[in-house]
Write a structure and sequence with these properties.
This protein is 36% helix and 14% strand. It contains 13 helices and twelve strands. Strands 8-7-6-9-10-11-12 form a seven-stranded parallel sheet, sandwiched between helices. A five-stranded parallel sheet has the order 2-1-3-4-5. The longest helix is centred in the C-terminal third of the chain and has 19 residues, at 293-311. Bound molecules: glyoxylic acid (GLV).
Length: 328
């Protein structure tokens, strides 16, 4: 029996590609070429499975080019690069990588929050530019983290990890808003209080966004929402670009409508809205919230495990849809 043909769409850990090669006929991309949708379509046309990294769009056009395709394993927890309905209709299984990145990503959310509140990168740029020649009482004075109000929009596993860090580590008063409310047990464990989105915007000192990107969450934070925030507040986005209206945020930062922002994700990344690069009160990182060596390896292995389990008949381990079995 010929093994299933798998495409690994971006360069990933060689040991994971090697593991896949023990089960499948693998085409990988060690040069890490960013294929255009047409180039990707050309490569998937004879494949049974694909390992994507979150930056390859899996839509009806790609699916139409891949008659044999049965599974796409995303090496990311977010899967807004998937057209899930089109995949389900085409009988293609989608999977993601939840859980293995929760704590690492929550760590980074907190790192970005603290860097933003305490103006870490802004002050480093000043020092590196040779501008530090005397002390002054208000030099890079930022906002307190301990004892302040932490607002979380989107209270999935990562949001809960951030809540725990804030409540138990920094004595923060944690409030959250989510599509559904947590169980009383989880609320108690996270020491988090459910509030309306309006109250969240009005009262958070640090507002962290951890919600999935969907048509409903597009520009969930725009000029109108920013206008409701405290002028001393900080906004942190570790979720997805497009949840924040970056142009409106850049203007608000310029006008000091809010104190500062910390952004790991951007609309249209890897492009960054030029106005964000012009304002000093924003910490900018290139979508690295899950980027520790052990966590990225765990994500790659989970994506590989999904492919292996799917083709050996156990079924996907972390499915994002339930397609009917693919026509022969
Ligand atoms: C990263 O953004 C992920 O979704 O895993």
């Amino acid at each position: 029996m010929t093994p299933p043909r798998i495409l690994v769409a971006r360069n990933i850990f060689p040991e994971v590609v090697e593991r896949l090669s023990q089960h499948f006929d693998v085409e990988s991309n060690p040069e890490d070429i960013i294929w255009t949708p047409a180039e990707l379509a050309e490569r998937v046309k004879d494949k049974d499975g694909v390992l994507t990294t979150g930056s390859q769009r899996v839509d009806a056009a790609l699916l139409a080019a891949a008659p044999r395709l049965r599974i796409v394993a995303n090496m990311a927890v977010g899967y807004n690069n998937f057209d899930v309905d089109a995949m389900t209709a085409a009988g293609v299984q989608g999977t993601n990588t939840p859980d293995v990145l929760t704590e690492t990503t929550a760590d980074f959310g907190f790192a970005l929050l603290m860097a933003t509140a305490r103006r870490v990168t802004e002050s480093e740029h000043y020092l590196r530019a040779g501008k530090w020649n005397r002390w002054s009482y208000d030099m890079f004075a930022g906002s307190d983290v301990h004892g302040s109000t932490l607002g979380i929009l989107g209270m999935g596993r990562i949001g809960q990890g951030i809540a725990r860090r804030g409540a138990h580590g920094f004595g923060m008063n944690v409030i959250y808003h989510n599509r559904s409310r947590l169980s009383p047990e989880l609320e108690a464990e996270c020491k988090a209080r459910y509030v309306s989105k309006e109250e969240l915007l009005r009262t958070a000192d640090h507002l962290v966004l951890v919600l999935p990107y969907t048509p409903e969450s597009h520009h969930a934070i725009g000029a109108a929402e920013i206008a409701q925030m405290k002028s001393t507040a900080n906004l942190i986005n570790i979720a997805r670009g497009g949840i924040v209206d970056d142009a409106a945020l850049a203007q608000a930062l310029k006008d000091k409508r809010i104190a500062a922002a910390g952004l790991d994700v951007f609309e249209g990344e890897p492009k960054v809205h030029p106005a964000l690069l012009e304002v000093p009160n924003v910490v900018l990182t290139p979508h690295i919230a899950s980027a520790t060596v052990p966590t990225r390896l765990a994500m790659a292995n989970l994506a590989a495990d999904n492919l292996i389990a799917f083709f050996d008949g156990r079924g996907a381990l972390t499915p994002v849809n339930r397609p009917a079995p693919k026509r022969a």
